[in-house]
Amino acid sequence: MQAEYAKGSPNDILIRLTISNRGPELAxxxxxxxxxxxxTWIWGCEHEGCxxxxxxxxxxxxxxxxxxxxxxxxxxxADTASNGAEPEFVFTxxxxxxxxxxxxxxxxxxxKNGIERWLIEGEENGVNPDKRGTISAAHxxxxxxxxxxxxxxxxxxxxxxxxxxxxxxxxxxxxSKRIEEAEQFYDSVSPKALNSEERSVExxxxxxxxxxxxxxxxxxxxxxxxxxxxxxPPKERLEGRNxxxxxxxxxxxxxxxxxxxxxxxxxxDLAFHMIPxxxxxxxxxxxxxxxxxxxxxMHPNGHIPAYEWAxxxxxxxxxxxxxxxxxxxCKDNGKGDLSFLKRVFHKLMLNFTWWVNRKDPEGHNLxxxxxxxxxxxxxxxxxxxxxxxxxxxxxxxxxWMAFYxxxxxxxxxxxAKEDPDFEDVASKFFEHFMSIxxxxxxxGESGLWDEKEGFYYDQICYPSGEAEPIRVRSLVGLIPxxxxxxxxxxxxxxxxxxxxxxxxxxxxxxDLARQITYQDADKDGAHYLLAIxxxxxxxxxxxxxxxxxxxxxxxxxxxxxxxxxxxxxxxNLGGKDFEVRxxxxxxxxxxxxxxxxxxxxxxxxxxxxxxxxxxxxxxxxGDSLKAEFPTGSGNWLTLQECADELSKRxxxxxxxxxxxxxxxxxxxxxxxxxxxxxxxxxxYEFFHGESGKGxxxxxxxxxTALVAELLRSK
Length: 714
Description:
Blueprint: E1 2-9, E2 12-20, E3 27-31, E4 34-36, E5 55-60, E6 63-68, E7 72-78, E8 88-92, H1 98-102, H2 114-120, E9 132-133, E10 135-144, E11 149-158, H3 169-189, H4 196-211, E12 213-219, H5 220-225, E13 249-255, H6 267-280, H7 282-291, H8 319-332, H9 338-358, E14 391-393, H10 395-416, H11 423-442, E15 449-450, E16 455-456, E17 459-461, E18 467-469, E19 484-488, H12 489-493, H13 496-508, H14 510-513, E20 516-521, E21 525-531, H15 535-545, E22 552-553, E23 556-557, E24 569-573, E25 576-580, H16 604-621, E26 626-628, E27 636-638, H17 639-651, H18 669-673, E28 686-687, E29 694-695, H19 701-704, H20 707-712
């Protein structure tokens, strides 16, 4: 079945269902397009969002009237099917079948599974003979010969926007017009350099983003106590998860990771969603980023909510980066919005302060944070206390905070171009970055850097005060790459207050000045690079990153080095053995439920940030810095060329080879050759580290839609 939607006006929705019989025999089936009201009347009307009970009733053949307290009056029409089949409307109520679930009699005999009982079990009393309710379905009995299709046209409209003609040529004309407009829109968005296959992948990535928008309603205060009209929740709920988030009231359309398999928001996922979203709907992208900083979302202490099952979990601090990235996309398109940047900056300051106060327990600028979105990447669950008083200095937690600092510095400097008052706060983030970077590199002589192996590692801290690196090469030790920001002479000269303070700091804090790289260009004046790794350390990290026996895959970066496939890393802590082994496919660990795997597969979000960082390093070092790509090949590329090659590899996950196979679909013959499937790649959650086969959620068009940005780099 194919469902197509088009709008005649803002509240006039045209729907076309096409049901195709691809089998060898005549198919008889029942098709029941359904319309219903969400049940809010049962809540007891003690909080915002409840309404009086609405109604749906049949007012003419093929026509329903829908009445709602706040939406007003709508009409819904079902046309005769293309094979002549006529619809019959059946009705029930959107009420829980409490008798089946709880053994208590429902207040109405018509419950939400009534239509299914009427159709499948033959229960005539499953539907309301009075032709009214809060759920209705248009019942079509169809006979479709082999190889043929039947179409059904439907229309939902506000009575104030009712068209003169509901179906027929007027209906077809609107569909044709909207298809033409969509073609024109995506043609204006897509870079001309893309070929037809790349354009198709890009467009489907955008389509998936649009389809993953969903209304989401969650009031923690009311959820903890339950609704008065239904069975009360157990008392333990009041002491359970999210009890510290009673202020949170979500009632918005939000971009979901995957509204089929993950129909709830995840804060750091959403930040990545907004990058490709800014290409097609920049206003929505900005509003989403603002929304999560509003006082009915953000905790009073400055914490951004993570996701519904544990709002207090700690996600990587990428919100500021997303805000800046969306701003720059809009600015590049001639629609810079400094007001947006100012608006988010103040709230981001609160969140930054929360990180500083909550996730640097020793005050040494070495940050924790727990799993930080990387689920099972570590030896143990990093969100839980370690046994026997041990603690953890996290290379990624500290690098994320340096990245947060450099992003906030960039935002402050952008605003300061128009408002010099922001030069002061820019100085604050400049100096804080220097302190975090210094701790990362030098606290206790070498910080979290392992000079022997040339990599950043987490450190386990013993109760005695001694610390030892956990020498597992994973994305945890590569995240320091992304904390890099370039300051050029022209910018500094335009901000005398910031420049004066920076120069004083560099002159009088020689111990920290080593965190900044200075380059005097012949024509462009002086440039400064703020980055965690020095050039020497950067080169060592890149040697691992571009090593095919370590991180470099045919399809991007592995999340864990392949070195641990034959030589897993083990550690005994508190009498318990822990082990990490390279696992390129589905997880073999039950950490975080085992439904995702960061011990080998390719993931888009971190890969995207690293590729972006490579572009930034190239802007500073230019052709003076080249890397062997792959390591040991004798092929030396600029970092710009490396970034482009990596973008190409990740884009190739979705592009067909000479036999029509797309790596994301593995060896599936269906997706390689069937004309109904072969042109529709699935945007998986993560990808096999060797074959590129898609894994995890199969409609994760959220952050995997970043492929649209990588294709643009062509």
